[in-house]
Design a protein that fits this description.
With 598 residues, this protein is α+β, with helices and mostly antiparallel strands. Helices cover 27% and strands 34% of the residues.
């Protein structure tokens, strides 16, 4: 019955114990038999288990008896990392309640606040839970005070649990029944089902994860996506236990899956509304937005013979991850590859790692970049994600770059270092808020391209691992950006081109030129290595030539004989320099790009 259904998710910062708590809930509701139980049961990927993070949402249906009534719990285990915040927002839209999990030993972190605010804005019932209370380092009273001060959650509403030992989990299950409301919805109204996730199965085809808001869905019915008007057939319905279990129908308030007749994940838009093709609903469910990649990078196989395998690998990964975009591109230096779009740096790292493992590919990734708005002198605007596509400076009126609004949680004693780091990255600190006697929160605006490489690593390093950051995309801001080329023997090398801020061009150019000088093999003539901004050289290194002692055969005699030989050599080198070409080995590109992107 609808009033006996509870739909909820678990939201938290990375590594605060969401998946471990999910394991205990599955165990205590006897959804999974004891002999089949394993740690991180809902994390199906090897990468998820190794890194201790959740990458994909995992729904599961549980049954829990309370006061003589059998309740149905639909739990959605959500990712915690900022790159997958869109998946979190879709999961929240499919629920009436959320368990806000906070590590009692670490306290409130950046993504705790961000995810809690998402839940509050979605008008969900939030149950605050302190996890890891069994650890000697836990400080329950201090974290309760943080919840009161930062999120205005009364301390008496907070529950204490240990996801590892199961302490307090039965009480949490009782509170889920008491506090989280039953789903609203009209079973007789036209069908409205929210697609909150989708995956591709090699044998079954496209599988949509749905939450039924109104109406009833039965197998075999003809369906339609309301925002994109794509028609599809419901071949099979079911629920997760946590494996897929077919059912006759999905009623109002239930969460389950639909196996469709669609062939690719690009046919489905996450966040869209499904309705019956014959009796459609009047309007779609609110909150849908198109998801767009934020970071772009070129992926090239080290062995050009692996190009087709890379293409196949990307197509197969895109079947289960619609946020991954790619298109083929050709580089003079690196050969054939793909320009790929990612949600963020972690997403980029995950995709590269999966390509290496699952398809046995050796890859090289170019310097990551973002999408710039380039306003031209003729009044038009183009979007540029690749430095090679930037028009000539005479055609550019101005360039806008994307910025982020970041919340950075740090210890009090690190505030000076972090403010210096923000200033170095061309950021601006908007406000400072004291969380307690040991921690504070900085709100700042930073250019997105400045945090791509080493910002998070340096934040962790400067705060001894205690700093955390959450961010959301902000506005596009006009900025003095230029294209920097690296010239080797006066010829530009497209793999090293980048879009940088004018004030940083010289410093970055010097670093790249110096690295190239140390890595390039010597030639028979001097090779100039230059960094140029719009054709003007801003940094230079010179790779010295192989030196042959042409005067070795002179045994004494007049000095003019030696001079004559040296002049002859000098003329030969000058002629060689004019016609000589520098061939840059593949290892040089690999070493330069690795040291730049690591």
């Amino acid at each position: 019955m609808q009033r006996h259904i509870r739909n909820f998710c678990i939201i938290a910062h990375v590594d605060h114990g969401k998946t471990t708590l999910s394991d205990r809930l599955l165990e205590m509701t006897q959804t999974v038999e004891k002999r089949k139980m394993q740690d991180q049961l809902l994390d199906s990927m090897d990468l998820e288990r190794e890194k201790g993070i959740t990458i994909k949402s995992h729904p599961v249906t549980m049954h829990y008896p309370f006061e003589g009534v059998d309740y149905t719990f639909n739990l959605i285990d959500t990712p915690g990392h900022v790159d997958f915040s869109y998946e979190v927002s879709r999961s929240l839209a499919a629920c009436e309640g959320a368990i806000l999990l906070v590590d009692a030993s670490q306290g409130i972190e950046a993504q705790t606040v961000a995810n809690a605010l998402l839940a509050i804005q979605g008008k969900l019932t939030v149950i605050p839970v302190l996890n890891k209370v069994d650890l000697p380092s836990s400080n329950v009273e201090k974290v309760k005070k943080q919840l009161e001060d930062i999120l205005a959650i009364p301390s008496e509403e907070t529950l204490n649990v240990s996801g590892k030992t199961g302490l307090g989990v039965p009480e949490l299950l009782n509170e889920v029944v008491r506090r989280i409301p039953a789903p609203n919805g009209n079973a007789d109204a036209p069908l409205q089902a929210l697609i909150f996730d989708a995956v591709y199965d090699t044998y079954k085809g496209l599988i949509c994860y749905v939450r039924i808001f109104n109406g009833t869905l039965k197998a075999g019915q003809a369906l339609m996506m309301m925002r994109h008007e794509t028609h599809l057939q419901a071949k099979e319905l079911g629920i997760f236990t946590p494996r897929m279990q077919p059912t006759e129908q999905l009623a109002t308030g239930e969460v389950g899956y639909i196996i469709t007749n669609l062939k690719t994940l690009t046919d489905i838009k996450i966040g869209d509304t499904l309705t019956l093709a014959q009796n459609p609903a009047a309007e779609p469910l609110p909150g849908y937005k198109e998801i767009k990649p934020m970071v772009f990078s070129g992926l090239y196989p080290l062995d050009t013979a692996d190009y087709e395998r890379l293409k196949t690998g990307l197509f197969k990964l895109q079947l289960n991850d619609a946020s991954l975009t790619f298109q083929s591109e050709n580089s003079t230096a690196l050969g054939f590859g793909f320009r790929c779009g990612f949600l963020g740096l972690l997403h980029m790292e995950i995709i590269q790692e999966r390509l290496r493992r699952e398809y046995d590919l050796d890859l090289i990734a170019t310097y990551p970049s973002v999408v710039y708005h380039v306003h031209l002198t003729d009044g038009t605007q183009i979007n540029v994600d690749n430095p090679l596509r930037l028009p000539e400076p005479s055609h550019i009126q101005y360039i806008e770059e994307p910025t982020i609004k970041a919340s950075i949680h740090i210890p009090n004693d690190a505030v000076g270092c972090i403010l210096e780091l923000i200033r170095e990255k061309r950021g601006e600190c908007l406000s400072t808020e004291t969380l307690d006697e040991q921690r504070l929160m900085l709100t700042c605006v930073l250019p997105l391209n400045e945090i791509l490489l080493d910002f998070n690593d340096r934040l962790k390093s400067l705060t001894k691992g205690y700093g955390s950051m959450d961010y959301e995309l902000s506005d596009y801001v006009r900025s003095d950006l230029v294209k920097m080329d690296i010239l080797v023997n006066s010829e530009p090398v497209d793999a090293f081109s980048s879009i940088v801020h004018r004030t940083k061009a010289e410093a970055q150019g010097r670093v790249l030129c110096e690295r190239l000088k140390n890595l390039l093999p010597k030639q028979m003539f001097k090779v100039p290595i230059q960094a140029a901004v719009w054709g003007k050289v801003v940094a230079r290194e010179t790779l010295s030539a192989y030196r042959k002692d042409v005067t070795a055969k002179c045994y004494g005699g007049d000095i003019t004989r030696k001079r004559k030989l040296l002049e002859k050599q000098k003329e030969g080198k000058k002629r060689m320099k004019q016609i000589g070409r520098v061939s840059i080995p593949q290892e040089t590109f690999v070493n330069i790009l690795k040291s730049t992107t690591e």
